[in-house]
């Protein structure tokens, strides 16, 4: 599924559930020259034991504020990039990547990205109080305020209402007129590594189905690499089934792992969940 919009240059496979970029850009962990940009805190990633959390405090919703978009951008940088913490100017590089993703997220969710009818950034968050004692890095990087309390983005994805994603296999359902309005793709799926196995990925997918139905989406797609067994289990559990696979020559040409295209009929999935 993949990731980041116009942006994140990383070949990391950490905590990645799907792999489809919304602009066909490639990623690389090579340093990028320093540019002028607005400075915001972006903490370095570190290994932390999974905290004990109260799952009833999870909130999964569409992003409504720029602060939350920034927190989501920071989580994606943290997830999709393997950066050497001892590398020169590493903090500036992280800020640069986060600013890129943040600006691209704003462009997509505001309806300014050509070829996309609508894009929603769906986030899962927890109260800061649930995590502050055991996940200092996650809290400092991905914190935002919802106007009531401080929360931390711990999972994120994009729901893209469009005919196709750049440089990806295009879905075939539905056919005919209206495809731009009734087909959607999930991309940029990530969950904080400290909170794997808490059902966050599943909650994000379920919320995407809810948003898709509200938009009038009938057919939902997601791309996943052929060897990403965890992602395939998540999507199959959520009702997806394989429609086709990427030709090997295309994967080699794009210098990436081969991908599968998974399909979900929303009308069918809604009946199954009743």
From TrEMBL:
<dbReference type="InterPro" id="IPR000182">
    <property type="entry name" value="GNAT_dom"/>
</dbReference>
<dbReference type="GO" id="GO:0009507">
    <property type="term" value="C:chloroplast"/>
</dbReference>
<dbReference type="InterPro" id="IPR016181">
    <property type="entry name" value="Acyl_CoA_acyltransferase"/>
</dbReference>
<dbReference type="Pfam" id="PF00583">
    <property type="entry name" value="Acetyltransf_1"/>
</dbReference>
<feature type="domain" description="N-acetyltransferase">
    <location>
        <begin position="75"/>
        <end position="259"/>
    </location>
</feature>
<dbReference type="GO" id="GO:0016747">
    <property type="term" value="F:acyltransferase activity, transferring groups other than amino-acyl groups"/>
</dbReference>
<protein>
    <recommendedName>
        <fullName>N-acetyltransferase domain-containing protein</fullName>
    </recommendedName>
</protein>
């Amino acid at each position: 599924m993949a990731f980041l919009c116009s942006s994140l240059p990383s070949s990391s496979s950490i905590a990645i559930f799907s792999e489809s970029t919304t602009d066909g850009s490639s990623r690389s962990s090579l340093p990028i020259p320093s540019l002028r940009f607005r400075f915001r805190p972006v903490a370095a990633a570190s290994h932390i034991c999974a905290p004990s959390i109260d799952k009833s405090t999870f909130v999964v919703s569409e992003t409504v504020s720029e602060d939350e978009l920034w927190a989501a951008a920071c989580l994606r940088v943290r997830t999709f990039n393997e950066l050497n913490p001892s590398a020169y100017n590493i903090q500036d590089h992280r800020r640069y990547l986060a600013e890129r993703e943040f600006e691209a997220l704003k462009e997509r969710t505001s309806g300014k990205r050509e070829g996309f009818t609508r894009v929603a950034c769906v986030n899962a968050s927890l109260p800061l109080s649930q995590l502050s004692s055991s996940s200092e890095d996650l809290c400092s990087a991905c914190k935002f305020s919802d106007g009531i309390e401080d929360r931390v983005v711990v999972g994120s994805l994009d729901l893209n209402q469009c005919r196709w994603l750049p440089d990806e296999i295009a879905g075939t359902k539905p056919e005919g007129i209206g495809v731009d309005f009734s087909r959607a793709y999930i991309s940029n799926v990530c969950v904080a590594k400290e909170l794997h196995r808490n059902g966050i990925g599943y909650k994000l997918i379920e919320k995407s189905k809810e948003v898709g139905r509200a938009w009038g989406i009938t057919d939902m797609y997601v791309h996943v690499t052929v060897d990403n067994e965890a992602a395939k289990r998540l999507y199959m559990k959520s009702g997806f089934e394989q429609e086709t696979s990427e030709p090997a020559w295309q994967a080699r040409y794009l210098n990436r792992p081969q991908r599968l295209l998974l399909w979900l009929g929303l009308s069918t999935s809604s009946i199954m969940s009743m």
